[in-house]
Every structure is written in structure tokens, then in C-alpha cells.
Automatic annotation (TrEMBL):
Domain of life: Bacteria
Protein name: Acyl-CoA dehydrogenase family protein
GO molecular function, one term: oxidoreductase activity
Organism: Corynebacterium nasicanis
Alphabetically ordered keywords of this record: FAD, Flavoprotein, Oxidoreductase
SUPFAM superfamilies: Acyl-CoA dehydrogenase C-terminal domain-like, Acyl-CoA dehydrogenase NM domain-like
Keyword Lyase: no
UniProt cofactor(s): FAD
Acyl-CoA dehydrogenase/oxidase N-terminal domain mapped to chain residues: 16-125
Amino acid sequence: MTDSVHAPFSTLADNPEVAAVRRKVRQVLAEHTSPERLADHDEEEKYDAELYRELANAGLIRLETELHGRGPAHQSQVTVLEELGAGATSVGVSIVVQYMGVELLHRFADDPQRASYLAPLLDGDVRMSFALSEPEGGTDVARAMSTRARREEDGTWVIDGRKKWIGGASTADFLIVLARTAEIERSSIDGITMFIVPRSTPGITTTPIDTMGIRALEQADIVFDNVRVPADLVLGEEHRGFRQVLATLNGERLNGAAVALGIARGALETAVEYAGRREAFGRPVGAFQALQHELVDAAVAVESARLLLHNAARTSDEAEGGAVETLSAMAKLAASRAGTVTTDIGMRVMGGWGFLRQLPMQRYFRDARLYTFAPLTDEMIRNYIGEKHLGLPRSY
């Protein structure tokens, strides 16, 4: 990956701390990835655990987070994830999940849980997976949640149910699982509890799902069959687990936006490089005005999304509240659009070469579609912004 397209803008947006993080990520990627390696992992649907280990060794999972004290810094996280999105996209998506685990554990874990789960997660010695989505529940997963946990007389919880679309579940060391623990009216988000569940616990079965994009990180179905979890692995407050998750969604929106932005940037760099060397009618195709204008529009979308994202991340590090969440929602929407628009333009710029599986454009095109619906659909993001930012009546 080169700096030819984005260097003036990213340099202006980065403060010294963010610039140092960006240099560190690029150094790890330069030493441990290549276009061929990225293509091979995508084709073989194989997670690059070695790259994850190197990123962890460089302190890029921990970043500024302290076991007791300072929590995650959003500006640093989004910088890591943008760089990964531009190349090692599937590893970036997996680290979005790890960063969510870091935030949940940092906010809600007790001291023994921090020592047993947060500390090794920060060091990169373990990986976690977040088990929320279910076959019958999408955006309304709390209302539709059918996974149940019942408490036995000795305090042990027993989990039964199914989860779907769970990234990295087959190879994770532990899961953070949400299950209904109290029967409250279906419109309520209460009555759901978070559990830390070691992946080796008897009764857990994972089945990989064959997906179009993010192929180097498996998505899985999970079945919980009489899975016994000790009482000391309840994470946070009983029956309020979904509220606790909602408290961390600001960071997940930012981090998803960062990967989408990285995909857009990677696609733009690839398309510009191609347009500069591919000739037709005796000159580079990048000299044709219609094509050039499309690439300019893509560049404006990428840089607009980057500036909005870093403004939202900086604001999130400095304050909390509705305005922060609205900025993060806008950043996610802008980055999602940048990803889909730029990869579409890139495919058309490259024509048949964009279809070639050895080249990255088709992978960017496939991968970008994830963030039109994760961690929340663009339509629901628009609903949120309409209500919270524009003051319009609630539309759902």
C-alpha cells in the first residue's frame, strides 16, 4: 500500500499520537503481508492468525488501554482499523470484535474477570467472539432473542439456544454471549444477561457459514445445548446485559466505519494506480475526463468520510452523550457509502481486470457490502440521525 493518493489528507488529519499508531500498523503490514498473501487467505478462507499475533506484539490490540484505569481510545482504534481495512480486511473485521470485547470487559468485568480474560485479550494471547445475533432476529434482536439461560439452585447458569453470523466463533478462546434470563414484555430490552463462556465448554457446537465477503474470517452458526456457566462468569449486571451492549455501540459504529473507510481507500488506490498505467487509444485511461471525474468523486467521498470519522472519534474520546453518538452514526453512514461507491467505481474503471480474483478490486467490492448492514443497517442509521439530529418524528 502506498501513500500516493491519501497522504496530504491523512497527514493533516492525524495528530502526533495518531500518526505514530498509523506508522506502526503500516510497518507491521509491510513486514508481514503481501498482495499474494492477502489473496491466498481470501481464496482459502483462512484466518491470518500470524498477522494477528504480530499486531498484538506491536501493542495494537492494547493500544492505550490499561487493565485498571484508562479505557480504549477511539482515535487510535479507528486508525488501526482503517489501515487494516485497506489490505488485511478480514483481520480488521476480527479486530473490531476484539476491540468490542476490550470495551465490554473494561467497563463491566470484575477484577477476577479482568485478570482471566481482559489481560490476555489485551496482550493478544487469546481471541474472543461476540455472540448476539440470532436466526430470527436482526435489528430487533432483543425482542426476538430466543436463547435462554436458566439458573440452577447452586447458582450455575445453563444456556440453550442458537446464534448466527458470529465472526470467529470456531477459533475463539472465549465467547461473550447474550441470553434471555428473565421474561419481560417483548418490547423491553431488559431481562437479557451477558456471560463469558470459554469456547471449550461442553455443549457448544459451531458450524461455519459460506459467505460472499470477509472470507478470511469465518462466520459461524452456534448451538448451545445445556451449556453450563458458573455464576462468576456473568459479565456485568444480571438482566441488563443488552443495555450494557448498547452503551458500547458508539465505539463499534466508529470501528466499523474505520474498516469501511479502509476498504474504500484501498479500492481507490488500486483504481488510480490502474488508471495511470492502463492505456487505451494511445493514452492512460485516467486521462479520460468522464473516468477521471468518477475517481475524483470517490476521492472526495473517502476524504470526507475520514475527516468525519476522526472528528467523531476525537469527540468520543473527549465526551459522551447524544451528540457524540450522532456524529459516530454519521461517520458510519459516510464510510459505508464511501466503501460501496468507491468499489463500484473501481470495478468499472478496471473492467474485466476488476473481475480477476488474483487482484484485490473484486475482494474490496465484496467486502465493502458488510458495512451496509453491520453493526447496524444504513437504513436504521438514517432513522437514528433523522430523529436525533434533525428532530424528525421517529420512523420505526
